[in-house]
Amino acid sequence: MTAVTTRSRFSGRTALVTGGGSGLGRAMALAFAAEGANVVVAGRTEGPLKETVALIEGAGGTALAVTADVSRSADLAALVAAAVDRFGSLDVAVNNAGILRAGQPVAELPEEDWRTMLDINVTGVLLALQAEVKQMRTQSTGGAIVNIGSTLGAHISVRGTAAYGATKAAVSALSRAAAAEHIRDGVRINTVSPGSSDTTMSLRPGETEAERAVRMKESTPLGRVSTTEEIAAAVLYLASDESGSVVGADLVIDGGAAA
Fold first, then answer.
1. Number of domains comprising the chain
2. Structural domain of 121
3. In what order do the strands lie in the sheet with 143-148?
4. For 179-193, how does the pLDDT look when each residue is reduced to its tens digit (9 = 90+)?
5. Is residue 7 part of a domain?
6. What is d(CA 73, CA 75) in angstroms, rounded to the nearest whole number?
7. Nearest in space to 92 (alpha carbons), one of 192, 171, 198, 2
8. 4, pLDDT greater than 70
9. Catalytic residue among 164, 167, 191, 257, which?
10. Would you state the torsion angle of the CA atoms of residues 124, 130, 132, 133, taken in this order, to the nearest 10 degrees?
11. Is there a domain that residue 192 lies in?
12. Residue 237 annotated in active site
């Protein structure tokens, strides 16, 4: 459980995290709560979301779980409405929900996998941006949005991950365009592109954490995966007033893999 810190950069603010039931999304949600935010976590499965809420509340924070499918615009409109109804505003949004299906070269890539990753990883971010910006630009204080990309795609290429990389490269491009278009609306948009982090998504089929550690030691300059707390810290920086002049950035956190 993440302990409550003495920092309060987000006190009185509402932070929405999609894909908040596990992994990076949960780490981000806990980090926002630890710095005073009212946190809304969203995802397709209720159980993990409730677990995240319980962790936040157990540490003295405030949170709300909302089930939503990011590939459906109606779900995202309802999600934003639920956040505003409960807490009065939407100040920060982290579009983290994503899916990885890998292992096949382009010529053998199943069409279903391609379409599913497009729906969630790209269309899901577009629809989320539309719902979030619509709300934030009605607020005198605007808002900050952080989209979660990946070092795969826009920064490096790995065999068997072409479709996933294409969707995440699209997130980077979409984020830059949206950032330029909506900063005058008071909405500041940036991207965080993680490399391998301490989540199950970075494990190869059948690989243990110990085996992953050996692989990372040999394959990346840093020699290890990033912790979820390190990724969350970057997201909170881009969502905070400390990065007030950072617009359209793509912050790569991959232990030097793309260097």
1. 1
2. 14-251
3. 62-67, 38-43, 14-18, 92-95, 143-148, 187-194, 250-253
4. 999 999 999 999 999
5. no
6. 5
7. 192
8. no
9. 164
10. 150
11. yes
12. no
